[in-house]
Amino acid sequence: MTPNDTSLQLSTSVTPSSRLVQLGLAAFLGLFVVGFAGFSHISAVHNAAHDVRHSLAFPCH
Amino acid sequence: MSLFRNIVFVAALAGLVAGIGMTGMQYASTVPLILKAETFENAAGGEGPATAAHQHAEATAAHSHDEADGWAPEDGFERSAYTALANVATAIGFALLLVVASEFAGGMTGWRQGMFWGLAGFAVFTLAPGLGLPPELPGMPAADVATRQVWWILAALATAAGLSLIVFRRSVAWAVLGVALIVAPHIVGAPQPESHETAVPHGLLHSFVVAVVASSLVFWVLLGGVAGYLRSRFMRVA
User: Fold this and answer.
1) Secondary structure letter of residue B237 according to DSSP
2) Within a domain: residue B154?
3) Is residue B137 part of a domain?
4) Residues near B174 by Cβ (< 8 Å), separated by ≥ 6?
5) Which residues on A lie below 8 Å from B64 (Cβ)?
6) In terms of CA atoms, which chain A residue is nearest residue B93?
7) Cys staple from B86: which of A52, A60, B49, B73, with CB 3.0 to 4.6 Å?
8) Is residue B151 part of a domain?
9) What percent of chain A shows pLDDT beyond 90?
């Protein structure tokens, strides 16, 4: 298959190890985003996301 | 990297929908209660009703807003815009985790299965951490924030692991271990403040806890449902 094939066909050709790497990468990205918005100790980030942190019951202050 | 790209696409769209929906729900429920609690928090720092209990609360409430100095959005539109932004970002992050987890189980087959994944997310990220560390309003005493964050993360991890053992390992022994994992963080116990006394009225807090749990439930079901629908439409083979 060429790299220009549709994602549908490409998905079937993903090797198990590449699949794990891509899933791991997506999970890492998710953890990073949630960690930054919900857990960062940077006060500007805390203040910007303040109401969200309280509303999602993240530990705050 | 097609799988990665597809997951990001599904998660970004689902997160956008659920994040915007969550912002609407928060402005209808939790945010007005937060703003009301802040009036008590600010009063506690000034010439509030100086009962003994109140002063005690002030002494333990070393985590008030004054500690979080630096830039903060202006009240009004700016604050709302950052709330919406943070909601969408958090929702995309949660959607990424949810879609990745579901891919290990073969992927969501549609919106209905997505909703069940959403319910699992609700159990892992709202119910389990919230049992030991209930939703808090500004101005309430709490233990050290870093310690609470560690417990929160461990509770979510243990619950996710426990649920997956119960659902995907078809044996009683694994199910028992799964339940034990889910219960373990609550036996250890979440870090608690020395005193729970606060100037925030109990009725206000109760309304807030209900609002947080109910809006989170809708958020997770919406996030999972949209992700499941998109996944079944755009990632048929994986």
Assistant:
1) -
2) no
3) yes
4) B165, B166
5) 61
6) A30
7) A52
8) no
9) 69
Total number of domains in chain B: 1
How is B14-41 classified by DSSP, letter by letter?
HHHHHHHHHHHHHHHTHHHHHHHHHHHH
Instruction: Find the CB nearest B83 among A33, A52, A57.
Output: A52
One-letter amino acid at B68 equals: A
Q: Report, as ranges of residue numbers, the positions in chain B whose pLDDT lies below 70.
A: 1, 45-69, 236-238
Tokens of B180: 């034990």
Q: Suggest the residue from A4, A12, A19, A61 to mutate for an interface test with chain B (most B CBs closer than 10 A).
A: A61
The whole domain housing B106 covers: 2-142+193-234
**Chain-chain contact of B216 with A56 (C-beta, under 8 angstroms):** yes
Q: Which residues of B touch A1 (CB under 8 A)?
A: none
Instruction: Please report the ipTM that was assigned to this predicted complex.
Output: 0.86
- Which chain A residues contact residue B103 at CB under 8 A? 23
> Distance between alpha carbon B32 and the CA centroid of its chain, in Å?
18
Helix (H, G, I), strand (E, B) or coil at B125: helix
| Interface contact A48-B145, CB threshold 8 A | no
Closest partner residue to A43 (CB to CB) among B69, B73, B136 is B69
In a domain, B184, yes or no: no
pTM, two decimals, is 0.87
